[in-house]
Write a structure and sequence with these properties.
269 residues, two-stranded parallel sheet, alpha/beta, 13 helices, photosynthesis, chlorophyll biosynthesis, 6-stranded mixed β-sheet, Mg_chelatase_H_N, 2 domains, 8 strands, magnesium chelatase, CobN/Mg_chltase, globular
């Protein structure tokens, strides 16, 4: 803490690094944080000091955990053992360090933070447009999708549930198709739902001015279903961001002007 009793926060150099991520919009601050989690360790290795080392290790541990999978979790524990078992605070090595250093912490096996998936293919599509290119050629409702007869529904999925292969995801996609709807399933970490709806999904009702701000790879949908459970803008339960950003949520949804349904799965996180 500083003399006033308040926490001083990270060192100035680290604060500068954090400021480099994100679009600059207040509602996108958490999205910038996710980007920092991915690239931060690579940048922090150039900064000296024990506090920076601990921050870098924390970011690496989080990366392993966030990517999930047996190999990543194994490497996560190897990293912790290599860095801290038998290692004193000042960086000196203890008697167990030589043994601990033998553990192999492999690079993180990564899955994109965002993408589109379908149970009929192992591919992960970078954007809704790429996904629809595949679906229009090979999807169960390919003909209906190409002709525009079948309505398209954007489905926001929790990335962790995709990584852990939760069975409700393919079941949900099949249910949409059985009802004659073309699913556009997009997985996200959770807090960036608004950026997907705002920047990657458009509708027939959206104004030309708003369409010009869309990102490359967007797709047109007739409805949006969120299985995330988080507010459109903001973090998980307990976060005050959702209340502070309710006007932003309203602005995004009014611009799209299509049904937006929240249908969270009955799972314990």
């Amino acid at each position: 803490p500083n003399p006033s009793g308040e926490k001083a926060g990270p060192p100035p150099a680290v604060k500068k690094i954090l400021s480099l991520f994100g679009s600059g919009r207040e509602e996108d601050r958490m999205v910038g944080y996710l980007s920092m989690l991915k690239f931060g360790p690579k940048l922090l290795k150039y900064l000296p000091g024990q506090k920076v080392r601990h921050l870098r290790n924390w970011l690496n541990v989080y990366s392993y955990w966030n990517q999930a999978g047996v190999d990543n979790v194994t490497s996560m524990f190897a990293l912790v053992i290599n860095e801290y078992i038998g290692r004193e605070e000042g960086g000196k090595t203890g008697p167990e360090t030589a043994k601990a250093a033998l553990l192999e912490a492999k690079p993180v096996t990564e899955m994109p933070n965002q993408g589109c998936v379908h149970p009929d293919t192992a591919r992960v599509f970078a954007s809704p447009a790429d996904y629809l290119d595949w679906y229009n050629a090979s999807g169960p409702l390919a003909a209906e999708s190409r002709s525009g007869v079948a309505p398209k529904v954007g489905i926001l999925l929790y990335r962790k549930h995709v990584l852990t292969e939760q069975q409700y995801i393919p079941q949900l996609i099949r249910c949409f198709e059985q009802d004659g709807l073309v699913p556009v399933p997009i997985f996200i970490n959770g807090v960036e739902a608004h950026t997907v709806v705002r920047d990657l999904l458009t509708t027939k009702s959206e104004s030309e001015a708003d369409r010009k701000r869309l990102k490359r790879g967007f797709a047109e949908v007739d409805a949006i279903v969120s299985t995330i459970g988080f507010p459109l803008v903001g973090g998980p339960a307990g976060s005050v961001e959702a209340g502070r950003q309710s006007d932003v949520s309203r602005e995004i949804l009014e611009a799209k002007n299509v049904p937006y349904v929240v249908a969270a799965p009955l799972l314990i996180q």
